[in-house]
Single-stranded DNA-binding protein
Amino acid sequence: MAGLPDITITGTLVADPELRFTPNGHAVANFTVAANDRRFNREAGEWEDAGATFLRCSLWKDAAENLTNSLSKGARVLLTGRLRQREWTTPEGEKRQLFEVDVTEIGPSLRWATATITKATRTTAAGAASPAGVDPWASAPTAAGGAPVADEPPF
């Protein structure tokens, strides 16, 4: 199978998600999730945290707005997305790399919490609510040749 690896993560939001908008008006939320590596120490008979992995994440469009309206710092979340590796060189010449997740789905973990679900209403480009069962993203804007516009999500 070609493409980037799909992953599922259970973790904790380390800060409130940051919502911003692209020049074309598309919402994007950026946030960091901390995932702990817990292992059972048989000799001590207890669980131990082996450290945390911090992953930068991004989520686009209506889901980004729903996230920022629903979850905040400290929330335990389950998410799926595509893992990306980004590399760069600092002005001092040091090579750096970072793993990021392009999130496709996210929700609260219900292991130690409850959630009340409210179905979000979507709006069309004209600002009117779209009818139930209609996908407002079905006619997303494209550039010449059918490629997504530059500020569209990368998937």
The chain has one domain: 6-120. Residues 61-70 form the longest helix (10 residues). Residues 134-150 have pLDDT under 50 and may be disordered. The CA atoms of residues 17 and 69 lie 9 Å apart.
